[in-house]
Amino acid sequence: MLSFFSVFLVLASGCSIASDRTPLLFPTVPPDIDMPEKFTLSVPDVQIKDQRYSLESSLEGYLFENTEVVVNGDDIEIRNTMFVNSQVFVNNRNNVSFRNSIYTGLNAYEQTALMVYQSENISVVNCQFTDNYIGLGIHDSKAEVTGSRFENNNGHNALVIGEGSSVFVAGNYFYGSFPHAILIMNREASPDAFVEITRNIIEYTGQDAIDFEDYRNASHSLVTSNVIRNTGWSAIIVEYNSWEADITISDNWIEGTGIDWTLPVHALQPEKYQQGWGHGILIEDSSLVSIERNRITLAGQNGIEIRNGREVELKNNGIDCTQVAVAIYEYQISSLSRPFSPLLQENAGGSRVVARDNIIYEASQDYEVDEESELVLD
User: Fold this and answer.
1) Vertex 22: Cα angle to 17 and 23 (nearest 5)
2) What percent of the chain has pLDDT over 90?
3) How many domains does the chain have?
4) pLDDT band at 10 (very low <50, low <70, confident <90, very high)
5) In a domain, 254, yes or no
6) Chain-centre distance of CA 281, in angstroms?
7) Amino acid 4: pLDDT
8) Buried/exposed 267-287: b ≥16 CB within 10 Å, e otherwise
9) Each residue of 13-46: pLDDT tens digit?
């Protein structure tokens, strides 16, 4: 049943609804995003194998195999180069560009094909990351990742953005990632950290496609105009004590969450795949998140779930799902003792959510609010 909501009451355990037809502000079809094309490289003339290599100037057309490559210079461009079962390290560097290059076949426990630390002006443009344990890691750095393909990086995430990083992620394609396509963290609560994740296509992720963990006290971040299809768990999640996260999630097309698909499994994965929640968007133990103008369709469980979330806004979203369209709950007791980033008792409580002009196409229930939580229908 199609429901239109304009909210006007503060409620503890239920809601009163006023009907108000509003224009559709969320996308009615998936955003038209150009998918980066897959490419191959000819067999390079220069082949370097089974060694440690210091890269001190720009290069083009190399093959590195079973090699540890350390970038030891600034103002460097690496172009049309293939890295096979190799690692590339960029540490404390400035103005390094990776273009039209391939990183493939690194299946070593917790190892990353391209790792960036404490560096600035790093560009990864039109590259391919395939069949790696972790494709690309960016930590305490400023970087851009554009027009690249990430396929079957299913050891421990395709793209990891770590503490204090400022990263622009746009126009990329992700497929077959485990557990996440993009994992973003800010455990050190750096106020300079932010991300903009826009106009990416993310398909068939083992767990949550975009995951903010411990993303604390950051600058304003955007997750906007992405197409996210067929996730084992949720499409987007903000969790694990992401207080004052300051994230806007807007204009995304989310289609098919909580699906059961044949995930590539191998012995080195740090955790085994199992069915989890299938919500479109999940906010848990976090605050300062705005969810606007998203189209959530074919969500396997709740459309949007807020659990122990504060300063959360929901507006102009379109939802169809199999369970509750908008579910608003208090904390889970198990969060106090979870082994990773446990919830402090002082931060445990009900959710505080403001909602307006959300359109619910199909759900078993429109809104559910537990006794400890509060919904303001504005």
Assistant:
1) 155
2) 84
3) 1
4) very low
5) yes
6) 11
7) 37
8) eebeeebeebbbbbbbbbbbb
9) 333 333 345 578 999 999 999 999 999 999 888 9
- Of the candidates 231, 219, 283, 220, the residue with the CA atom closest to the CA atom of residue 256: 231
Residue 314 counted as domain residue: yes
Give the domain range for residue 254. 25-39+100-367
Nearest to 277 by CA among 362, 211, 181, 348: 211
The predicted pLDDT at position 79 comes to 97
Residue 54 pLDDT > 50: yes
Question: For 157-175, what is the mean pLDDT?
Answer: 96
pLDDT of 133 over the 60 cut: yes
Cβ neighbour number for residue 79 with a 10 Å cutoff: 16
359-362 vs 318-321, strand pairing mode: parallel
Query: CA 284 to CA 116: how far, in whole Å?
Result: 29
The pLDDT, as a whole number, for residue 163 is 86
202 and 210 in contact (C-beta within 8 Å)? yes
Which pLDDT score, from 0 to 100, does residue 267 have?
65
Residue 2 domain-assigned? Answer: no
Three-class DSSP labels, the chain:
CCEECECCCEECCCCCCECCCCCCCCCCCCCCCCCCCCCCCCCCCEEEECCEEEECCCEECEEEECCEEEECCCCEEEECCEEECCEEEEECCEEEEEECCEEECCCCCCCEEEEEECCEEEEEECCEEECCCEEEEEECCEEEEECCEEECCCCCCCEEECCCCEEEEECCEEEEECCCCEEEEECCCCCCCEEEEECCEEEEECCCCEEEEEECCCCCEEEECCEEEEECCCCEEEECCECCCCEEEECCEEEEECCCCCCCCCCCCCCCCCCCCCCCEEEEEEEEEEEECCEEEEECCCCEEEEEEEEEEEECCEEEECCEEEEEECCCHHHHCCCCCCCCHHHCCCCEEEEECCEEEECCEEEEECCCCEEEEC
- Which pLDDT belongs to residue 269? 65
**Whether the predicted pLDDT of 287 surpasses 70:** yes
pTM of the entire predicted model: 0.93
Instruction: State both tokens at 246.
Output: 């300051």
In a domain, 205, yes or no: yes
